[in-house]
Amino acid sequence: MKPVFEKIRQLAKPFLNTRHNDVHTAISTRLAFELLKCEGGDEDIVIPAILLHDTGWKRVPAELHLKAFGPNTTEPELNRRHEIESVKIAKEILQAIKHDPEKSKKILEIIDGHDSRPKALSLDDMIVKDADKLWRYSKAGFNIDVERFGESPEQGLERLRTHIFAQLFTLTAKEIASAKLVRRANEKAVECKTTR
């Protein structure tokens, strides 16, 4: 990782110790690099955006988080609130490191709407949106979501197959999601056999 990305990661770290965002951001960053390699895009925009996109959850009370996202959302305006707060935090961090103003503007535009905006602004936005959602297909992301949403593994797999998969933009993201879905389903099958 470039030194500037590491600097951003360190400054973002105190804002990521809620909602499993430390784990989410680490996995999403690896996925963003993978998507950049296959799809193109500007890593100087994508990586800072993925490192900073969920920092605003720190400013939304933890007891309200599950009302803002997931299959049982009741207050989607809280999800928008985390985007607004993430933009504020990201702007402070980018200014503190004297990040390129033009790139910073694009980073902030992506963060502002990374969950609530259904259409992507650019290839870089597509990659950030896809890396953000793809983490749910990882073993850690899948297990965290199933537990916090109170789902069975079968329900979690179905959510990924239908709701989340339809929101992916790039071919690479869809291929990664499909491969990881097979792995999650196989892990569930092995788990069922071992518990009998």
Describe this structure in words.
By secondary structure, the protein is mostly helical. It has one domain: Hypothetical protein af1432 (Orthogonal Bundle). It is 69% helix and 0% strand. It contains ten helices and no strands. The protein has helices spanning 3-12, 21-39, 43-52, 65-68, 76-96, 101-111, 123-134, 139-149, 153-164, 171-195. The model is unreliable at 192-196 (pLDDT under 50).
Could you give the topology of this structure?
Layout: H1 3-12, H2 21-39, H3 43-52, H4 65-68, H5 76-96, H6 101-111, H7 123-134, H8 139-149, H9 153-164, H10 171-195
Helix pairs in contact: 1-3, 2-3, 2-7, 3-6, 3-7, 5-6, 8-9, 9-10
Summarize the structure.
With 196 residues, the chain is mainly alpha-helical. Helix content is 69%, strand content 0%.
Q: Could you say how many structural domains there are in total?
A: 1
CATH domain topology: Hypothetical protein af1432
Radius of gyration of CA atoms, rounded to a whole number: 17 Å
Query: Biggest sheet, open or closed, and with what strands and sense?
Result: none
Low-confidence sequence ranges: 192-196
Beta-strand content estimate? under 5%
Summarize this structure as a short list of keywords or feature phrases.
disordered C terminus; 196 residues; Hypothetical protein af1432; mainly alpha
